[in-house]
Amino acid sequence: MTTPNLDTVEIKAFVPAKDFELSKRFYQALGFRMPWCDDDLAYLHCGDCSFLLQNFHVPEHTANFQMHLLVQDVDAWHAHVTIERLAERFGVRIGPPENQPWAMRDFVLFDPSGVLWRIAQNIPRPGEAGTVPGATGTGA
Predict the structure, then answer these.
(1) How many angstroms separate the CA atoms of 104 and 124, rounded?
(2) How far apart are the first and last CA of the chain?
(3) Is residue 9 a part of any domain in this protein?
(4) For residues 111 and 19, is the Cβ–Cβ distance under 8 A?
(5) Residue 71, in any domain of the structure
(6) Total domain count for the chain?
């Protein structure tokens, strides 16, 4: 009996957008590229990570939607967000980088629609060898 090929290629979330044009500009300023778009959907990617931005908004859905982006250097990402003045340009909220008890250093970023992003990097657990450059946040 032959085993079926159940290998996966990728998984993408459909991220809601209250103001589709504003959200597309925000994600491009954040560092995502948009190789394809139509009136209802935009394909956005950064490196090997991607998602589909949709011209769709239900307040209760959007307010409970979360994304997690794992990066190599969370402090560099936070600096980029700050230098690009995303909070001022797009009216979004950005938190400071913090060490979390689940062995990640992250910061929160709310997109223009209110979608919560956690941008994070893995860090050693307490008692493990290794240091995290610039890790001055609270927690682990």
Answers:
(1) 8
(2) 50
(3) no
(4) no
(5) yes
(6) 1
CA dihedral 56, 59, 60, 63 (to 10 degrees): 90
- The residues pairing with 23 across neighbouring beta strands, listed in sequence order, are none
Q: What is the pLDDT along the chain (140 residues), one digit of tens a residue?
A: 899 999 999 999 999 999 999 999 999 999 999 999 999 999 999 999 999 999 999 999 999 999 999 999 999 999 999 999 999 999 999 999 999 999 999 999 999 999 999 999 999 987 776 655 444 443 33
pTM: 0.86
User: Nearest 5°: phi and psi at 41?
Assistant: -150, 140
Q: Are 44 and 51 in contact (CB under 8 A)?
A: yes
User: What order of strands is seen across the sheet that includes strand 33-37?
Assistant: 14-16, 49-54, 41-46, 33-37
CATH number at residue 40: 3.10.180.10
Strand partners, 101: none
Bridge partners of residue 120, in order along the sequence: 70, 106
68 lies in a domain? yes
The domain of 89 spans 14-122
**Per the domain annotation, does 42 fall within a domain?**
yes
